[in-house]
Each structure stands twice: as structure tokens, then as C-alpha cells.
Design a protein that fits this description.
Helix content: under 10%
Largest sheet: 4 strands, antiparallel
Radius of gyration: 14 Å
Number of helices: 1
Length: 104
């Protein structure tokens, strides 16, 4: 095996863990990395470009947002699926209080 990229998706001082999913969010043919903050963190979500990762870069964000109130501390459980029939993966994000949000 060869490691092609090794990076912190959130600030390296954060120790609440991370939830991960992979899917082609932007429709460019590369699987993008979707990361949600772990339990104890705010419901922050970042999507890192798979094309950039394949080129050895981890600095290209497709999205960076809070899926719910930033004051919540239950993290953001992420998944991807093609829900609306287009060629891009859609985000499903679960946050504190059993709230689920869909992002197309």
C-alpha cells in the first residue's frame, strides 16, 4: 500500500474525532472526502476535493459549513448518496437532537 495523502481535515489541536464518508459531491469523477466533527465538537462539515487529493494537495475545500447551530456539541455524522437523480452525491448529516439534514 502507498499513502497518497496524510492531513488533518480540521485543526490538528481538535481531539473530538471525525466521522468520514466518501462520494463524488462535485460531479468531477473523483471521490471527495466528507468529514464531520466527532462527538463533543460543533456540527462542522468539510468536503475536500478528491481531484486535489489525487494531485497530492489537501487544501482545496468544496464546502466548509455548520450543519446546525454551532453551539451544539454532538458533532456531525455524515453520509453521501445520490438522492435526487443527478450525477453528484448528496450529503445526509445527522446532528444532536436526532436532527437529520439533507444537502443537495
Amino acid at each position: 500500500r502507498t499513502v497518497v495523502n496524510d492531513f488533518f481535515v480540521f485543526d490538528e489541536t481538535i481531539r473530538t474525532g471525525v466521522y468520514l464518508a466518501v462520494g463524488d459531491v462535485d460531479g468531477d469523477g473523483y471521490a471527495d472526502v466528507v468529514a464531520g466533527a466527532g462527538a463533543g465538537g460543533a456540527p462542522r462539515v468539510r468536503v475536500v476535493s478528491g481531484a486535489a487529493l489525487a494531485a497530492g494537495r489537501s487544501d482545496e475545500m468544496i464546502a466548509d459549513f455548520f450543519a446546525a447551530d454551532p453551539g451544539q456539541r454532538g458533532g456531525a455524522r455524515v453520509s453521501v448518496a445520490r438522492l435526487d437523480g443527478d450525477a453528484r452525491a448528496d450529503l445526509t448529516i445527522g446532528t444532536a437532537g436526532a436532527e437529520v439534514n439533507l444537502f443537495y
